[in-house]
Specification:
This protein has helices at 3-30, 33-48, 57-70, 128-133, 160-167, 190-194, 199-220, 230-240, 275-281, 335-341, 379-396; strands at 82-86, 89-96, 99-106, 114-115, 120-121, 125-127, 136-137, 140-141, 143-152, 173-185, 225-227, 250-251, 256-257, 262-268, 288-296, 303-312, 328-330, 357-358, 366-368. With 397 residues, it is an alpha+beta fold. Helix 1 runs antiparallel to helix 2 (33-48). It is globular and about 85 Å long.
Length: 397
C-alpha cells in the first residue's frame, strides 16, 4: 500500500470512529439501553470489523459505489514518452502524474532449458537481490517492476506441430519477453532532484541516467540489458495491450472485458512468491500471460509483491478457475485497478493495494528472462532427451 493510500484509509477509519461515537451518544439518549447497545454494536461491525478479503462492510460499500461510478468507462490512454539524452545515452521517459517511467529490456543469451519431471530450469534469470540493490541511485529512490509477457506457440506456425508433439497436453509459452520498468516519484525524491537543477528538467534526466546505470549494473552481472528509447517504449506498450486495447476494455465485477477476450488479474500471495510458483503460473491455458514482480521502497526496506494477468477467450470465472488458489488472490470490484497496475504507466499503475513481503526474505528468488516450459514428462522421455543432447555434443566435438 502506498503512503497516499495509507493516509486516505487512516483518515476514513478515524472519521468512521468519530461518526460511531457521535451516533452512539445520540442513540443512547433517545433509545432504551438494550436497543441502543445493539445498534451501536451493529454499527461498529459495519464500519470497523473486516469481513471478506479483509474489508469491512463500509469498505465494500465504498468499493461498490466506485465500481458503479466508473462502470462502462474506457481506460485513459497512456501519455506519449519523450527521448531524454544524457551522457550515458538516450532513454525514453513517460510522465504520468507525479511519477516518471522508463524501461530496460532484458535480452537473454541463447541457453538450453532443461525439461524435467514437472519443472524446467534455465540459467537466464535475474536475482531479486540484485534488483533491490539497484533501487537506490545517488540519493534517488526508484521502484522497479520485472514484467514478463508470453504467449502460446501457434499451431499455425512452422514449428507449432513439433512443439505440440513434444510438450503434449501441457501449455508451452513460446514467445516470452522481459522488461524492467523503473519509476521515479518526483515529489518523494524532490530534494535529490532539485539538487541537480529545476525539477521540471532535472527529474527526467535523473531517471534517464539512473536507467543507464541500472542497465550497466546488470550487464556487469552477465545480464544483457538495454535502455529503451521513446519509440521502443511505445512498441513495448503496444505489446502490453495487444489483446486488451485501452479504448475497448471495460471493467466488470470480477474481470475485464474486450470485444473478443477476457482479462483477469490476480494478486500474488507474497509468501508463495517462489521460483517454483513462477514456473507454475505460466502453465495456465491462456492466450497471453503477464507476470509482474514489483519492488517498492518502504520504511523497513524494499518490499516485493506481484501480479499475474491472464487473457483468455472465454470467461475465466467459468472456464478457467484460479490456476493456483493458494498463491494467487482473486479480487473483485478492483479489476480495473489491478489491470492498470500491470501497465507501463506512472501514478495509475501504483494505485492498487498489492500485498508485499520484505525483499530480504526473498533472497533466493530469481526471475527467468526467457521462456520456460513446465510440463509432466516421463522418466524415459527425460532420459531419451538427455541421451540425444549428449550425442549431439559428441558429434560436434
Amino acid at each position: 500500500m502506498t503512503l497516499r493510500q495509507r493516509q486516505r484509509w487512516t483518515a476514513i477509519r478515524l472519521l468512521a470512529v468519530l461518526l460511531l461515537g457521535m451516533w452512539g451518544l445520540t442513540v443512547a439518549r433517545v433509545l432504551p439501553t438494550k436497543v441502543a447497545g445493539s445498534t451501536i454494536v451493529l454499527t461498529a461491525l459495519a464500519l470497523l470489523v473486516p469481513l471478506h478479503e479483509g474489508r469491512s462492510l463500509a469498505h465494500w460499500g465504498v468499493l461498490t459505489i466506485a465500481f458503479i461510478a466508473r462502470h462502462g468507462r474506457s481506460v485513459p490512454r497512456l501519455p506519449a514518452p519523450t527521448d531524454i539524452l544524457v551522457a550515458s545515452g538516450t532513454a525514453g521517459i513517460r510522465c504520468d502524474g507525479r511519477t516518471l517511467l522508463t524501461a530496460i529490456e532484458l535480452r537473454p543469451a541463447l541457453a538450453i532449458t532443461d525439461i524435467g519431471v514437472g519443472i524446467a530450469c534455465t540459467t537466464n534469470a535475474v536475482p531479486v537481490r540484485l534488483l533491490a540493490q539497484c533501487m537506490h541511485q545517488y540519493g534517488i529512490d526508484l521502484s522497479i517492476d520485472v514484467v514478463s509477457i508470453g504467449q502460446e506457440v501457434s499451431l499455425a506456425s512452422c514449428y507449432g506441430p513439433g512443439c505440440a508433439q513434444t510438450v503434449g497436453q501441457r501449455t508451452l509459452v513460446g514467445r516470452r519477453r522481459t522488461w524492467l520498468l523503473l519509476r521515479l516519484d518526483v515529489l518523494a525524491n524532490l530534494p535529490g532532484i532539485t539538487a541537480r537543477g529545476p525539477s521540471g528538467t532535472a527529474a527526467p534526466r535523473v531517471l534517464a541516467a539512473a536507467c543507464h546505470r541500472v542497465a550497466q549494473r546488470l550487464r556487469e552481472n552477465g545480464i544483457d540489458a538495454h535502455a529503451l528509447t521513446a519509440k521502443q517504449l511505445d512498441e513495448m506498450t503496444d505489446l502490453f495491450l495487444e489483446h486488451s486495447p485501452l479504448d475497448q476494455v471495460r471493467e466488470r465485477w470480477s474481470t475485464m472485458r474486450t470485444a473478443d477476450a477476457y482479462v483477469k488479474t490476480f494478486m500474488i500471495e507474497p509468501n508463495q512468491l517462489t521460483n517454483t510458483h513462477l514456473d507454475r503460473w505460466w502453465a495456465s491455458p491462456a492466450t497471453s500471460t503477464a507476470v509482474t514482480v514489483r519492488l517498492v521502497n518502504a520504511n523497513d526496506g524494499p518490499r516485493v509483491g506481484g501480479l499475474v494477468r491472464y487473457v483468455t477467450a472465454e470467461c475465466p470465472c467459468r472456464k478457467y478457475p484460479c490456476p493456483n488458489p493458494g498463491a494467487l488472490l482473486s479480487s473483485v470490484s478492483i479489476q480495473r485497478r489491478l489491470f492498470e497496475a500491470t501497465l507501463p504507466g506512472g501514478d495509475r499503475s501504483l494505485r492498487a493495494d498489492i500485498p508485499t513481503l520484505l525483499a530480504s526474505d526473498l533472497d533466493s528468488l530469481s526471475i527467468a528472462t526467457e521462456q520456460r516450459v513446465r510440463h509432466q514428462q516421463s522418466a524415459a522421455s527425460v532420459a531419451t532427451a538427455r541421451h540425444r543432447r549428449h550425442r549431439r555434443q559428441a558429434l560436434q566435438k
